[in-house]
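Researcher: I need the complex structure. Ligand is iron/sulfur cluster. Inputs:
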Amino acid sequence: MACPDDPGSIAKSREPPASVVALCASILALDENASSALELARRVEWLLAHQSGLARKSFHAGAAAIDAAALASTGKRLARLDIAAREQFLERLGSHASAAAPIEAMKALILLVAGADRAADTALSKATAAEPARPDPEELRVIPSAEWPSVHHCDAIVVGTGAGGAMVARTLARAGMSTVLVEEGRQHLVSEFRTDTPLERFANLYRDGGATVMLGNPAVLLPIGIGVGGTTLVNSGTCYRPPQRVLKRWLDHEGLILADPDHIGAYLEEVESTLQIAAVPRNVMGRNGELSLLGAENLGWDAHPMMRNAPGCGGTCQCSIGCPRNAKLGVHLNALPSACAAGAVVVSDARVERVLFDTDATMHTAGKLRATLRALGTRTHQRVAAGILARRKDGSYFEIFSQRVVVAAGATETPPLLRRSAVQRHPMMGRNLAVHPALSVAGYFDEAVDASDGVLQSAAIEELHESDQILIEATAAPPGMGSMMLPGYGRSLLAQLDRADHLAFLGAMVADAPSGRVIGSKRPLLLYNLDHRDTLRLLKAVRSTSQVLLAAGAQEVITGIRHARTVRNERELDEVLLQANPRDLHLAAFHPTGTMAAGSDPERHPVDADGALRGATGLWIADASILPSCPEVNPQVSIMALALAVADRVLSMS
Ligand SMILES: Cc1cc2nc3c(=O)[nH]c(=O)nc-3n(C[C@H](O)[C@H](O)[C@H](O)COP(=O)(O)OP(=O)(O)OC[C@H]3O[C@@H](n4cnc5c(N)ncnc54)[C@H](O)[C@@H]3O)c2cc1C
Ligand code: SF4
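Model: Output:
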C-alpha cells in the first residue's frame, strides 16, 4: 500500500546503480543476472530514499568503492566474479579494520530489506489474526498543517507529541488552557499497521528512515520515532520506574527537586495508571523470553517477565514497527486523546523552525501580545517566549502565538530547535548526551525458537543491574528483521539464515557516562565516544548475555563481536573476549537523554530545576533531554513522570 509520506512506491523506485545490485547479489549469493538481485537492490534504493542525502550518498559511495576494490584486487568487477570468489573477496575486505564497519553497515541494511520482505506475509498474517484490542481513539483530534491557519493564538503550545509532550499537553488542557501540540510527523492509524509491509512501516515510522547514526568509534545506530505519538509509536512497551538510587542522585547531585522521591511518586503512579502497566502474561511471552528466564534460572540469577504497557497484547512481535493490535499503549492511545478530549488539538506534518520571542513576533499583529508580556514585568535580559514559527511540508510557514511554549522534541531535536531560536546559548546545551548503549547476542538452539513469535521485549534479567548497571532484556525483532547480526557473506550467510528460526536473542544495555553531544542547528549531528569504563562493561555484558544463552541450552552463541567466531562454551567465550577489540562491538542505542539537563546549577544545567529554560521566560523543556543522566532503565516512564511535574510547574507559574 502506498503511504502518504512515501517518496515513491517500491515499484517506482529509482534504478539502483550497478554496484548496489552487485553488492546485494554478493551478500546473499544471488545470481547477478537474476531478477531477484535487481529487485532487492530496488527495495534497498527505496529505503535509502527515505534516509538523509548523506546516508544515501555514503551507501552508493561505499558500494562503488567495494566494486573498485574488487577490480583492483582480482582484476574483475564484483559482478564478474563467481559466487565463491565474491565471498572470498568480501571476507578478505571485511577483515580490514578500516573497511569492516562500513561493509557491516551496508550488509545490515541489505539484510534488513531482504528479511523484512521475505517475512512480510508472515508478519501481516500475524498482524491480522485477531481484531485490534481497541480502535483508534475518536477523541484524538489531528489537523494536518495544510489545513491549519497561518496565524493562531492560544494559551499553550507544546512542540512534539511523544512521551514528554503528550503528558504535558494533557495536564495543561485539563487545567482549561487552550493547548496546541505541533508535530513534525503525521498521524499513523492501526489500519496501516495491519496492511502495510514491515519495510514500509519501518521507513515511515522512523526519522530519516531509521538511519540516524552517532559518529564515533564505533559508530552507533540511534533510531528515533517520528509521528503523532513520537517514539512511543515504535518503542517496545517496556516500563520501568527510575531506580531510587538514580532519583537520589538526581536530587542530591543535580539539585533536581522534581526527582525528590516524595514529589515524583504521585506522578509515577499517574503514568503507571495511564499506561496500564502489567507483567507480560506467559501465554504471549514466546519461547525467546522463556529461554532467557530458563537460562537465568539455571544460573541462579534474578529475572522476571517484563513489565509492559500492552493490555491485549497478542505477541505479534511488531512493537518496533507499529503495534497492529493497538495493544501497546503509546501516547497516541491515551494521553493525547485525553488532552484532545479536554480541548487540545494536534497540528501534524509541521516542523517547528523556531520558538518566537517578544522581539520576533513581527510577522503578524503581535502588538497585543507584547503589551501583555510587558505587563508581566519580566526582567529585560530574559527573552520572553511569544510562540512558534513552523513550516508545512509544502514549504509554507505558519505562526502560533502563546505566552507558554513547552518544547518536547526529544533529546536529539530539542537542542537544534533552541539554537535555531536564538535563545541564550548555554555552554551545556546539546552536551551531556547519554544513550544507554545496547548490544545483542544470539544463540542457536536445537529446538525451533521462532523468536518473533511472542512479545518483542519479554523478560528482564536484573542480576548485574545494580552492581554493574547492566540491564539484560530478552529482545527479539519483528519477523525477518533479526538477521542483521548474522556473520558471513554469500553461502555461509545463507546457511545461517536457513536456521535463523532456531535463534534466541538477548539484549543488554549499559548505563553510560554522558559521552556524546548534539551539534548543529538545522539538522542535528550526533557525536559519541564510548567511555573506556562503559566499553569494559559492554564486554562484560557480552559475557553475561552469552552465559545466559549457554545456560539455557544454546549449542552455539553469536556474540555480535565483529570477526569473532561463534562460541560453544564459556572457555571459548573467554577466548573470544580476550581478543575482542571494542571497536568491533556491534552497538545500537534507543534511549538518548541529557542534552538539556535540568538541575539547580546554572553552570551545568541549561534547564532549571523547574524545567524552565535558563535565560528565557515562558519556555519550558519536557522531554528526554532534561534527564540529568542515563536513568539506568528504559526511560519512557521517567520522561513522562518528569513531564507531568514540569506541566504542574507551568500551571503554578501561570
Ligand atoms: C525502537 C525503540 C524502542 C524503545 N523501547 C522502549 C521501551 O520499551 N521502554 C522505554 O521506556 N523506552 C523505550 N524507548 C525509548 C522511548 O520511547 C523514548 O525515550 C521516549 O519516547 C522519548 O520521549 P521524548 O518525549 O523525549 O521524545 P519522542 O517520544 O521521540 O517525541 C518527540 C516528538 O517530537 C517531534 N519533533 C521533533 N522535532 C520537532 C520539531 N522541530 N517540530 C515538531 N515536532 C518535532 C518528533 O517527531 C517526535 O514525535 C525505545 C526507543 C526506540 C527507538
Ligand atoms: S507484541 Fe508488541 S506489536 Fe505485538 S501485539 Fe504485543 S504490543 Fe502489539
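Model: Summary of the prediction. Residues 134-237+240-276+316-433+598-654 form a domain with the FAD/NAD(P)-binding domain fold (CATH 3.50.50.60).
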